[in-house]
Specification:
The chain is 63% helix and 0% strand. It is mainly alpha-helical. The protein is globular and about 60 Å long. This is Tryptophan 2,3-dioxygenase.
Length: 267
């Protein structure tokens, strides 16, 4: 009998053990992964704080990968593939928002036990977060200044993102493939034409909706983050040197694809 109570599995159906070289922990590099949580204090909640951030960074890595592939699919005129990838991006982004709740189980008093150890570190210095913004079209070179302490490879990654095409550039390429004009003067007319003739352009319309959802969920995360910040530190300034919540509130009004929002007014 197997450990699960079933009859033993015949040898020809024992799947995945052919080479016998991989183990669960080896495949997932768990010894390396699980040795990377190093609290700076004795405070019991610091492990939660580190874990949450590391999980975010892992999701950011996946999002960058999927968004790069979605961009490539749009350039290759494989809109179905881009749409498929955006569904995954949206699902991950919803998890990012839900996850804030886990960190909110920490009380502000418990956070203050180790907060002073964190400065001048802050989310400002998340390279992958800024890469996501740049790739999505929000290219603000001024943020390179917050990475003075980052390594050369990280700075080079950010510079490369500033030079690379954005998701919007890739969408414009998809429109051009259909012989739709995309110059600054003509783009709103094209977006309206797509919206009004879904019989001919439904895939382009749905893809624009996917971009908009990506934009909307990013904004929802920013709002959720600032709510958490107000709950944790109120009106205190940030460890990264900003005004804290007021700075972050300002960032909630940003859009990756402003024309897709403006389009609503013209429909
Ligand atoms: C106790 C929880 C948290 C507090 C009090 C907090 C506070 C802040 C503050 C005050 C800032 C502004 C920069 C500064 O001056 O420090 C900031 C920025 C940021 N935080 Fe957090 N944060 C928290 C959790 C998180 C988590 C879990 C993430 C996930 C990765 C995160 C990601 C970021 C990012 C990416 C920025 C830069 C945002 C931008 O420039 O638009 N934060 N945070
Ligand atoms: N900026 C936060 C501290 C903080 O949350 C943080 C500190 C180090 C690394 C990541 C952080 N997360 C988001 O800003 C604060 O001012 O309390």
């Amino acid at each position: 009998m197997g450990i699960d109570g079933d009859a033993p599995v015949p040898p020809d159906r024992r799947f995945g053990e052919e080479g016998g070289r991989l183990s669960y922990g080896g495949y997932l590099c768990l010894p390396a992964l699980l040795s990377q949580q190093q609290p700076q204090s004795e405070s019991p909640d610091e492990l939660l704080f580190i874990t949450i951030h590391q999980v975010y960074e892992l999701w950011f890595k996946l999002l960058l990968h999927e968004l790069e592939n979605a961009r490539e699919a749009m350039f290759a005129d494989e809109l179905w593939r881009a749409r498929h990838l955006f569904q995954r991006v949206h699902a991950v982004e919803r998890v990012l928002i839900e996850q804030v709740e886990v960190l909110e189980t920490m009380t502000p008093q418990d956070f203050l036990e180790f907060r002073s150890k964190l400065a001048p570190a802050s989310g400002f210095q998340s390279v992958q977060f800024r890469e996501l913004e740049f790739l999505s079209g929000l290219k603000d070179e001024r943020y390179l200044g917050s990475f003075r302490h980052a390594g050369d490879t990280e700075l080079a990654r950010l510079r490369r993102r500033l030079d690379e095409p954005t998701l919007w550039d890739a969408y414009l390429a998809a429109l051009s493939r259909r012989d739709l004009p995309v110059s600054d003067d003509e783009i709103m007319g094209t977006l309206l034409a797509v919206a009004r003739d879904r019989g001919s352009h439904d895939d382009l319309w749905q893809l624009a909706e996917d971009l908009l959802t990506h934009d909307e969920t990013a904004a929802q995360w920013r709002m959720r983050h600032v709510q958490m910040v107000e709950r944790q530190i109120g009106t205190k300034s940030g460890t990264g040197g900003s005004t804290g919540a007021p700075y972050l509130r300002g960032r909630t009004r940003l859009h990756y694809f402003p024309l897709l929002w403006e389009l609503r007014a013209w429909l």
